[in-house]
Structure formats: structure tokens, C-alpha cells
Amino acid sequence: MKKISLNSFLCLLLLFVIVLSAHAQTQALPQLGLSSIQEVVKAMTLEEKIDLVVGEGWYIPGIPIPGSPKNPSEAQKKVAGASGNTKAIPRLGIPAMIVCDGPAGLQIFNVGKSRAYYGTAWPIGTLLASSWDTALVRRVGIAFGREIKEYGLDLINAPGMNIQRNPLGGRNFEYYSEDPIITGHIAAALINGFQSNGVGNIPKHFFANNQETNRSTLNVIISERAMREIYLKGWQIMIKQSNPWGIMTSYNRVNGPFTAESGELLTGILRKEWGYKGFVETDWYGGQDAPEAQGAGNNLLMPGMPAQKSLILDAVKNGQLDEKIIDRNLEAILNIVIQSPSFKGYKYSDNPPLKENAEISRQAAAEGMVLLKNEGKALPVKPGTTVALFGNNALELIAGGTGSGDVSSMYTVSLADGMFHAGYSLNTNVYASYTNYLATEKAKKPKQNNVTAMAPQMPIPEMSISEDLVWKAADQSAIAIITIGRNAGENNDREVEDDYQLTATELALINSVSGAFHAKNKKVVVILNIGGVIDVMQWRDAVDGILLAWQPGLEGGNSISDIISGKVNPSGKLTATFPARYEDDVSAKNFPGREISDIAKPTLSGKTFDAEVIYEEGIYVGYRYYNTFDVQTAYPFGYGLSYTQFKFSDLKLNARGKGTSVLVKVSITNTGSVAGKEVAELYITAPAIKLDKPSSELKAFAKTKILEP
Ligand code: BGC
Q1: Residues enclosing ligand 1, CB less than 6 A?
Q2: What are the structural domains of the chain?
Q3: Which of 157, 161, 262 has its CA nearest to residue 210?
Q4: Ligand 1 closest atom vs CA 101
Q5: How close is the Cα of 366 to the center of ligand 1, in Å?
Q6: Whole-structure pTM over 0.85, yes or no?
Q7: Distance from the CA of 283 to the center of ligand 1, in angstroms?
Q8: How far does the chain reach from its first CA to its final CA, in angstroms?
Q9: pLDDT tens digits for range 493-538
Q10: φ, ψ for residue 594 (rounded to 5)?
Q11: What's the 260 CA to ligand 1 centre distance in angstroms?
């Protein structure tokens, strides 16, 4: 037998002792899920705690982002190109949670990696809300949540819930409405569906982020009443009905403090008054004072920067920030971690049911389109008909908006393709002329990648069409369909000229096509492929039909064709007013506010100036203003036509006692000749005793199933 020396023996003994004590230590260490959250928090070092209340940084492969890690962590490799993640602390059994954007579908930066993520582009928020159908939106939520879960994600920065205060808001497409009641109910429906998968929503941006101009420095001045009745109301309804895992604060200030750093908002209103139990995160790099945000109840600073960690550490060490506050913030995050797929070790497939989801997206899109005009039954049009399809967007559908709301979409179906699938013949001369024009214009543009695509795109200007082509088309085709498209997104609000209003070329196109087709007794229909309200007064009398298709997601061309053919009877209603003139909108004189300093401050998304906006209109936002002050609109809130007619009868109100709810019943009969769905919108007029009141306020709504004639 080989002898071992004393030295070797001592070394072995020491090793044994080290191994034993390390083992004992791991044994004794609390583990998330096995021990209580308080015990886990107690076992954390201060540095670990801070690591968890500040995100791990935004890592996009190949793109250097200031303050972000040089090399990806395990979580950042798991779904490379996601928007952010919380940090893993393996010794305590805490996994990372991964979050992506939102809100109209998954956004992943497919840059510099072997595998690409593509998802379903759902119809934009405004379209979903225009369906007024909470069951449908819930269904979208279920499918959407499943999709992100199958890609290994835990959370999504969605839905967008800001109020469409002004038609020019650059992100209006991400939001639901000018009205808080529909906003709250539609958001809750989406979240309830989405979260039923065991993944979480982070509705955004809480609150008053109703414009993009100077968004990260803007002080929004709002009366307490307007806050409560308009800008907070939707959030309150949504929280009560759906309990999202997280909430994202906005970039702006409200009456002074940043929402991200307002204890009155995040602790007072959100948690104490409304009983919210989830976590709160900042918008990306939002707020200015990391310790202040922590103190206010903003649990998680996203996407997280090392500088924020040092500031929090210093603040705790010098007694400015109580460590107990960090513990409190941490507990709310861990409460969500234990529900997450990452914690549960969910075996995601990386293979969501994309085909099935595309079909749901197609149906949902058709349900939220709004028929604005249909003179002489211009629509529906029988498949088989020869259609002259005008407008760039007939070939280039705008499926959704830009910025973080842009979706890594699998594909988009153009209207031309959709109509072709539905069995229409397209006028080949017109089609060829647009194909050539778009190809030439595209060749002139610099090449896009996923990151530059985040920036607002300059649309290809509408083609100037020759009279000769139009008159020939009027001879050869049975009907003309013209598309008008608009796109907008994060960082910029829209302009009145050439955006809210049509360009001279677009107006010329409508006039020329209408002139030629009407001369031949043929109809002209306009399809609006837009993300926000535009002017219609300058041109609507020239055409027979207008279908507001919004930005309908990846199957858009098929969905629009479903309405054109009558396969789906339109049942969408406006959730935003179309004013007669932009200036008629009461917020127009206070949009986008004024700059109060001319010193430009750099932000990640460009320069910003200290600015303020006063919500002088108070509660009179959208229809609350138009109806109360008798201001004519082009199309009012709640408006939308159908291919059939409905009769409302037997309205019954049943109060269950003073001060309790009232049950309202009404019978709806389809009195026309085709099947369809109808929306019941319940408005009330409250007596103006102590306060002035809007002449009408939406209180409840419901959508019928398909009603046969
Ligand atoms: C947007 C958020 C988005 C976040 C992450 C921010 O610029 O305002 O809506 O969720 O970026 O992409």
C-alpha cells in the first residue's frame, strides 16, 4: 500500500473540511420557492439586492448601448435581442426574468445571431379597441401570451394604455382610445387572456404620456379632477379587473415630479388606494434619480445601468435610503419571479403556433375595422370583379407603427395579395405601374436593418398618377379602391400638414380617380391604412365608401378583403373622434406644449428640452368636449356602419337599491338582410349639481354575437 505523507494528509483533510463547510452553507442557504421570500431577501447581500432592483442592462448583439454589458449573461443569450431582464442570483435559486416589447406583437432585435425570432403582428391597440369586443380581445391575449411563452420569455411591456388626447400623438396607435372606460376594459380583457398562460403583462406608460415631443423632460400640468376622471381612470379599472404582474411608469413629469419618482402616485394612489400588488418598473432609462425612484415605490429600474446601482448603494450607505425600502421593492419582484416560466423551468418550444395565431390576428383585425361611409352600397364588392387598386399602400400594407411598438413580424399580406386570394381580378396596368414605381423608389433608399428600422421611416411619397392610366382603368375595371397610408411611432408626434392632412398628391389621386370612375358610373372606395386620426373633410364627399382599416397586423390584406367581399360584416366603432378640422380639437391649442428652456439635453432617443404642457381642457377630452360644447365632428366617437341595420328596443333599467349598480338590458334586432354584430354603447348624463358635467359619458358597452337577419 502506498504511504501518504503527513503534508498530503493535512492537505486532504483541509479540502474535506472546506467541501463539508461549503456543502453545509448551500444547505443552509434559503432557496426561492422553498424558503419564504423574506428569508431569501435576508440572505442577500446589499449588492445582490441592488442587482435585482436594477435590470441587468440592455444587450443587443453587435450594438453597443451606453451603460450596457459588453458580454451577454445567460439570460441575454437565452432570448438574444429581448428588451431587458432581471438578474439571476443562482446561489439563492433566483432565475432571471426576460421581458420583450409590445404592444402589438413581439419585438426582438434579430441582430447578429444564428436564430431569428418572428412573431405575429397583431392589429394595433386602436383597432382592437374599435371592436368593442372584450371576448375577442381576450382571445387575442391568450394567443399572444402563449406565443411569448413559447419563445422563453416571461413578460411583455404591453398593453399601451395612454389616452389619445390629441390626434397628432405619435404613439396613438399603441393606445386604445380617447376614453378611459373603453381603455380600462379592453386592457383588462387583453391582460386576463395573456396572463392566463402564466406569463405577465406590464401595461404602460403610467401615466399622462400622451405625446412624444420632449417626452422625457415634459411636465404635464393636469387638474386633480382630469387626472381622476380621465388619465388615471382606465388604469384603475384595468387593475381592479386584471391585476397585471407589472406596471411601467412614463417618462414625463406630472405636476412637478417624474411619475417614475412619485411616491404619491406609486405608493399612495396605486398601492394604498387601489390595492395594486405587482411590481412597478421605469420606462427604459426613465426618471433621473435612481434612489428617489426606489423610495417612491418604483421596484425595478429598466433596463438598468451600473451608475444607478452605485447611486443606490451610496444612498443606502449614507442613510438617505433605508435598506428596508430596497427589501420591500425586492419582495414585490420576487413575488412575480416565483410565478414566472423561467422560475418554473418551463420547457419552451421556440415554436409557437404561428399559423393558428395568424388566423386569430386576421379575424380580430376584420372585427375592429370601421365602415365610415357606404353610399349606394359601394361595399361589399363581389369576388370575381375587376378592381383598380390605387395607392402605394395597396402593395405595401402598413401592419403596425414604428419604434418599440414595431413588431418582428413573420410577414405582411398586402391588400393586393389579399384581394387576389379572395378571388378578385386586379387591373394589371395599375398594378404594374405601382410595382415599378415602388421598386424604383425603394432602390434609392439606404438598406434597413432591425435597429435602423426602429427610427421613424420616411414613407415613399405617393405616386403621381397619369390621367391617362386612370381613365383607362375606369374603362377596364368595375370599381376603384384607393389606399391612404400613415405611419408614426415613438419619439415623434405627427404634423398637421402632409400627415394629419392629406398631401397634394393624395388629394389629386382621389380627385382624379373619382372624376374618371364617376364619369363611368362606377364607385370609388377609400381604405384608410392609418394608425391615428386624419382629416377626411377635404375629400370624403368625392368618394362613395370609406373603410377605416387601421393598421391591421400581418394578415391585414386578407382582413380588409374579408370586409370588402362581405365575408365579414363590419362592426367596428370609433374609439377616437374624427374632428371636422384639426383646430376644432380642444387640445390643439395646448399641444405639444411649450419649451421652457432652449438648452438641449441629450437622451438616447435624441435631444429634448425642458418643456411643459397644460391640459387646459380638463375633463373635456374627445367626445366629452365635442358633445358638451356642440362642436361638429366629421365622425363622432362610437360611430361605425354595418352592411345591415339594427333596432334597439325594450330598454330596461333595474337598480338594485340606492347607491348600487344598475342593470341595463336592451334588445337588439337585426332588421336588415345580412348577418352582423352590433355594439351597445351606454352613455349617461350626470346632473351638474356641484360640478359641471360632460353632456355624455360612456359607462358600459357590450357586443352582440352574430345576429341573423
Ligand atoms: C418605450 C417603451 C418600451 C421601452 C423598451 C421605451 O423607449 O417608451 O414603450 O417598452 O422603450 O423598448
Answers
A1: 83, 101-102, 157, 204, 283-284, 404, 490
A2: 43-344 (3.20.20.300), 360-575 (3.40.50.1700), 588-635 (no CATH), 646-703 (no CATH)
A3: 161
A4: 10
A5: 28
A6: yes
A7: 6
A8: 99
A9: 999 999 999 999 999 999 999 999 999 999 999 999 999 999 999 9
A10: -130, 150
A11: 14
